[in-house]
Batch of 3 targets.
Target 1
Amino acid sequence: MTFNPNLILPEIYQFLVIAALFIQSIGSAKMREKVGLWLPIACALGVVVAVVSVGQQGLVFWKSYQVDHLSQFFKAAIAIGFFVTVLNASRQPTLDKEKTTDYFLFLALSAWGLMILASAVELITMYLALELSSYSLYALVAVRAKSKDAAEAGIKYILFGAVATALALYGFSYILAGMHTTYLAELVKGDWSFAASPMAVTGMALFLAGMFYKLALFPFHFWCPDVYEGASNETAAFIATLPKLGAIVILIRLATMFKPGYDITTMLAVLGALSMTFGNLAALVQTDVKRILGYSSVAHAGYIMIGLVAGTAEGLAAASFYALAYVAMNLTCFWVVSRVAVDGRNLKLKDLDGLHKRAPVLAFALAVGAFALVGLPPMAGFMGKLFLFSAGWNHGYNWLIIIAGINTAISIYYYLGLVRHAYTKDAEDDVPMPDTSSFSLVGAGLLSVLVLALGLMPAGVFDLALNAGGSLLP
Amino acid sequence: MQELAYPVLTSLVFFPLLAAFGLFFFRGDSVVRIYTLIVSVIELMLALPLFTHFKLDSAEFQFVERMDWVKHWGIEYYLGTDGISFLMIILTIAVLPLCVLCSWSYIKTRVKEFHFCLLFMTAACVGVFTALDLVLFYVFWEAMLVPMYLLIAVWGGPEKRYASLKFFLYTLAGSALLLVAIVAFRVVGGTFAIPELMEHSFTFGFQFWAFLALALAFAIKVPMFPFHTWLPAAHVQAPTAGSVILASVLLKMGTYGFLRFNLPLTPAATEYFAPFMIALSIASIIYGGAVALGQNDIKKIIAYSSVSHMGFVTLGIFLLNFRGLEGALFQMLNHGIVTGGLFMMIGAIYERSHSRDIFDNLGLGKYMPAYMGFWGLFALSSFGFPGTNSFVGEMLVFVGAFEYSPWVGAAIVPGAMIAAAYMLRVSLKLAWGRPTSWNGWKDLNLREWSYLAIPAVFVFYIGLAPGLTFRVMDASLEKLQNHVHTKAQLVSIEDGNPMEMAWDSIKNIVK
């Protein structure tokens, strides 16, 4: 079998970036500080490489690594997300200068792990990719200089992460014992009802628990608000978005095994319903912006389940589209949070008071991001929800869609809270001025346009996602 | 098929939207006001082809524009108008210049943003009335929430934050299930296009739930008792232009929703729920009027009177006879004109006295005769005085109600009497009340004359010569009424028992 390196071009490119960062990180202190000069350009180029590779297809590494529409769609999304998070983190106030290169090295490693995860179609490969992406993040959470909360969040993240990993690994062993293979292509052919293969289903449930941890799905979400709160704003922006893509791509691959009506599919649906309801109710009482976004991500993990339990190509495509939309809208909110908290502090809701006067573009971007997260048209979140609902209806889980609809109504209050503080309240006199440099405003503007464009012209991206989803189903 | 050189409806939707973004190129409050006024006049001129090319007596959708939006899901950019939406489109566009004029001296802060919201609102509202695709409708329906929220929250009265939040939460919560219903229509009916869905026969079980999901969203927007509590707060706190748009256009969206969706798409469920909706309408009429009678804040009186008047509209709709439907649509237009006019009058007096309490504005008849003239006209029309526009509409609803059942007809008679009582009470006090001291307020100026004269003309025109208005709407309403009755007969109530469906869903969850 001849190996075609074009198939894994985005991964190779990302690896080269990592290598360059590694060399720089062991260089002199002066050299280490200059990472900001080239990295954003390299990441932008990475986006181009990932987008160019979207059409690639093939199986490599002894069939454990599949390059297909789904993987390439997600790799492009990860590349774009990585580019934005690097830009966002390039002006991080709480980071020691000499740690800058290490910081980006870890970020890049994590993104690389996620890219590998997107193509992994064998359980051990998935596990390794998952760990690669996770370990880098454990280190990142704690690097917020002089913050006890950061240390606590780091420890929480590692400990819970270790437990989740252990569960997943334990699950592997059961799956292997029950189905005698670790390849998804073989696993798909098995009967995944509890009556037929109780051991494999139990193993899958345990493995899913590990994925749910990454996705912050109820009841595996407890780390999420604390870690967001403890991590620096820029790190939280990364943790809140890209690892979710990794978890979703795996869940999408696994979802092809779950037919509506299976016990495990019903379990996913029930967890989805609980996740959206718990996430939204908990977010209602928060005052810390990052905790709000943390609980909101718990809720959004629940919405995505609608696509996964539908058991159709449209469902998987809708979940992919929503994941991408979620990354875009969340990054928009985090961009604003990072720019408003110029000193790197955690923002409370009242810190957003009068933002429309101090920085109208940032306030507008925040409104776009928040309304998109609610699912208000014409933003990306609306189209995402519409696709999810349309794909999910009449596949046995209509009640889940009704619960999602009611949850949308509940979520309005806290998302509107962000806009309300920014637009209708006046700031106190001694509030620090947000970053209104052209870098900050252009970034906010472009992200808002992306969120609006995904809502107004979703057809192209959805068709891509549909190709990806369709390629998985027989 | 119209042979027009350009897409009229698209231009009506997107011209104000583009013009709103054009505002950012202008500096100076007066320039912004003049610019928006010019835009609103151009918007009116863009609507001229509607008048010249609209086929009266036709029940079909006209000025249709259709193209794919998201092909895979069959979501289309699909616009069109018939006799039901035509009047609402014109009302929306006509209200815009009046809103600009009545805010001219009232809005002093963040003038550019205010006019941005006005133009954005207009675009979204025209969109709601022209959309023939369910998703497109929902997009416009929700899009107008944000500017309306800002209009109340930024330029409103002392309790603006509470009122705006309540408005937003109520209306968005109502439409959460609307989205679910839209999806259900697509999956079961195979399309998002409203005309195509109308041809489809849904089971009674499906119609039952779909009706409830749609009706909740629309009943909140109307608002019908007991979903009305957001309205007085929003009206009282909103700036004058906000109240005018709210009363003239936004409330109509709810009743328009009933006419456009509930009746044609869920006809059997509509017949099934009609007595219940009639009961709620009667409650709205009596309750709204009774509460208005006990208020001293003029804006609150008009706000509660809206609950009552809109009760007449929903009553007319759910009577499901031709007179009722005709009266309902007629009253939608009339309420837009008259209540919009009354809110503009309240704005005008508030600019002078800085109070909306009746007792702070006593005795205007002697010093501000022109003002009281207009007030008297709108007040008479409001309670359906013969010769004015509301008389025709209210009369038709009465005829429809008595046709439906003498009991229903009798039940709403006190509503009309209460309306006369509260409007006469406030008018008498304003005109002949004894002021403690006179502050030398000037009577209406030219600007105020200009924006009050327009609705006043329509009060008489529609009141004395309603023929043309009937010709616009009758064919479409007749078609709608026939459609409801024919389609409802095709479906049996046993066909998909709703309660069984609900029970199945619950069993699915706990399985």
Target 2
Amino acid sequence: MASIRLFVLLLLALPGLLHAQQAEPPRNGTLAKIARDGYITLGVREGSVPFSYLDDKGRFIGYSVDLCMKIVDEVKKRLNKPVEVKMTPVSASNRIPLMANGTIDLECGSTTNNAERARQVAFSPTIFVIANRLLTRKTANIRTLADMKGKTLVATAGTTTLKQMTALNRERNLGMRIVVGKDHPESFLMLETNRANAEANDDILLAAQVAGSKQPADYAIGTEALSLEPYAIMLRRGDAPFKEAVDAALRAAFASPDFPRLYAKWFTSPVPPKGINLNVPISPQLQKVLANPTDSSDPAAYR
Amino acid sequence: MDYHWNWAIFGELSPDGVNTYWQMLLSGLGWTLATSLAGWVMALALGALAGIARTLPQRPLRMAAGAYIELFRNVPLLVQMFLWFFVVPELLPRAAGDWLKALPQAPFVTAVICLGFFTSARVAVQVAAGIDALAGGQAQAALALGLTRPQAYRYVLLPLAVRIVLPPLASEFLNIIKNSSVALTIGLVELTASARAIQEFSFQVFEAYAAATVLYVAVNLAVTAGMNVLERRLALPGSLGAR
């Protein structure tokens, strides 16, 4: 029993120890850190096609990674010295702690910028706008969310989509059974094995799932946009000089005549490793953002 | 560390608009307890049967119990979860498979079945070890007194064996509680999954997992204390395993 008591005491002391960690003075920003170390660390994802993923040669590639490289060029210019680029794979679960403890300086993935998260980190100007939509089998005859009354819906654990579907289910009295997939491939597997009548997810992710599936022709992505969400590149909070460099780099990239080619490379042409073409042209919402870059987390700003 | 601590996050309304984050964690804890308790009942029942069969004189029964134990002991729990959830329904006749998939709490039922079988194999080994630890003497003495074999098991062997294997069984009980977190991979929103969801929604990762850790530890300490009491209650002076 004495050992149990000691253990409980240790546990109780833990929050205090963690708080003591915070007492260290804030570092003088990411730019200073990069200048001192001579390298910048990008947090990348392993499976967010076509934003940030691992290709068959073991390199991290994607639309977000390309945009991050533009930011790196801007940083080089400002520091006036060469900067080495390191890439660290992150997951949805560890991207925040790794950003907070300085392991990564930028997160180049498919991260939604929302108000709750903006209390913890800062976001670049929006790089992509997605809508939540339903993915169904064509044979199921489900056109809109209203057709899902009393049926089973799958969404991925911890996503903004799951959160929104739970709310809509209540507001519209749909009585849907909502099942949770642990990650995107698993959510799709639930639809594929008929455990769910529809999958709710970011439309761009759904497009990638369908394009990579065994029978792409069997599935239909709903036309009803259930929400709009901005994707952005993540950085640490309260670092004005670095944020300013990030903003400047992306504004320049969006305004550059090369941008349509960069977009086409990832969204309207075959991408490695399988040569799948997502065929997603620039949406009107994204057009608007490219013309007037914004880092707003409010979905209303993208309508 | 450049981290924005916010322990007040648990009082805030979670994205479902009904429950606070704290209620979300508690609901996860509820599923963890329900899954592990139901699985534990199943594991004890099946494990006791297989463990007894391991020690019987009939060779075919011993072999069958051995095969059962090896099957469930040698495949990783995560793989078993996937097999039960995604593969088994596809192997059944179509109607049965569809019925399984449409169960209102399919992930919960699957998790209980999977944890029950997995843990029962481990319980069986311990029960058999407890009976074997009594050596041949107790069994032979009981039979020599004129007890039938079932009576010998019921009145002599099992009561003594249970006392011997109580400590490892307590560990197994703690294991099933911890192993229930694997059920998040088939969509059961238990304690670990709800902690993960909180961190995904709010990005308050340390608070979410710290709270889940404390809840797991509290539950397991309660189980340990309960098992200690049980062990003292059952102690038989002069027998193996007595304190």
Target 3
Amino acid sequence: MSEHEVTVTVDGSAERATVEARRLLVHALREEWGYTQPNVGCESGKCGACTVEMDGDVVKSCCVLAVQADGSEVTTVGGVDGAPEGLAEVDAGDPRATPAGDNDEFGPVQRSFHEEHGLQCGYCTPGMVLRARDLLADIPDPSREEIREGLKGNVCRCTGYENVVDAVEAAAAKLEPIETDGGTAGQADTVDGGAPTGGDD
Amino acid sequence: MIPPQFDYERPTSLDAALDAVAPPDAVPLAGGHDLIPMLKARSVSPGTVVDLGGLDELRGVERVADEGDTTTEQLSVGALTTDADLLDAAPTGADALLDATRAVGDAQIRNRGTVGGNLAAAHPASDIPAATLAADATLHLVGPDGDREVSAEGFATGDHETVRASDELLTRISVPLAPDAGSAYARKTHPSTGYAAVGVAARLRVVDGVVIGPRVAAVGLCDAPTRLAAVEDRLAGADAGAPVEAVESATTRAGDGVDAPVREDHIVSADQRRALLPKYAEQAVSEALARAVGREGVVA
């Protein structure tokens, strides 16, 4: 067996550890460095509870060795704030919106999960929020079908997904693409119309 | 679920990677979505895991003109190109490959999973091998004795079995891009695994209103990707002007001539897979035909 010195920037902080080669990134995050928002769920790459951003891409941290993340930038849900990349919040004046001052450290996606009750036990929520942000960055105004397809890698055993889809729709309504010269922020990651949707595969 | 102990190496050149995978107990690691779950389940126990992530030379997608025939091109996909990067590149003329890549796992998995890793892992229900088989792609291997090419047809031999020797690495995949060909992939997702219960890729050309050179391949059906000869035979020469009839008559008995054992598990039986096959063959062939008709006449 081999042990390796790794340095990973997690939510902006440089974290170091000596890890066995077999150490999974999710275990290093939780147990070496105390970032407990990525959860350990199915441990087989299906449920998405361990989702983090690694160098800008959402990944399942139970399917990455900690040593593979050496030199990477990892963002957990605790490290995100504000709107997803390429989007800005519009002041929609939603009367149901969380009052100012309550949860104002949360960005629009987290607040929408709160307001629409897009969770019950909350175990899947860190992964759901990170993937929802990533989805909205790709497709700023997704259909319900695109949301379901887009979240297929994140399993929720409580909600039946209705409120999760509501939450992502509500977040989309709070956001608009930032005008750029290139205008590519809204490029769609289209989905296979032939595949059945639903989050339980 | 903790993997067993192993050593880890991350070579930064192809030569160093070949040295690292030379010992019989060394295994290459690409995107990790086949190997790492197997390590956690302890169904494999390698001495050394050789992370190929440092081999930037094996990433990227480019179009290459065919030697000797300037009217056709090959799409050259570096083996370590992630599924997401292939989809972002969105090369035209490789629709079935893009359809199949889009069907892989989910967004997080496509961000890590690689095209070459998918093929080399040879999961029997993986999507991409259907597209490479239908496209008559070529897989490029390098080993201690040099390079060799293997057709997609000859690559996978069974469940997680290929002709790749343990000291060889898959470096890139060449996919022919006939500009007037149409291709598509359709699948029934397995309700438990998320892989294909059955998946079918089809590729064909339409010349003077007639279907030419159809290739149709299924995954999830048998342990290795399987050509659907009955569909190909009935489709060749069919009238593209009557696509509904042509496709239906070609795909109704899509499983005829499939001699290898059909897979089954406690959720999807072999009979169900055979019963699902015509519908997904029909979807794939219909879409491939529509795309080919859309491209007919592109090349004078």
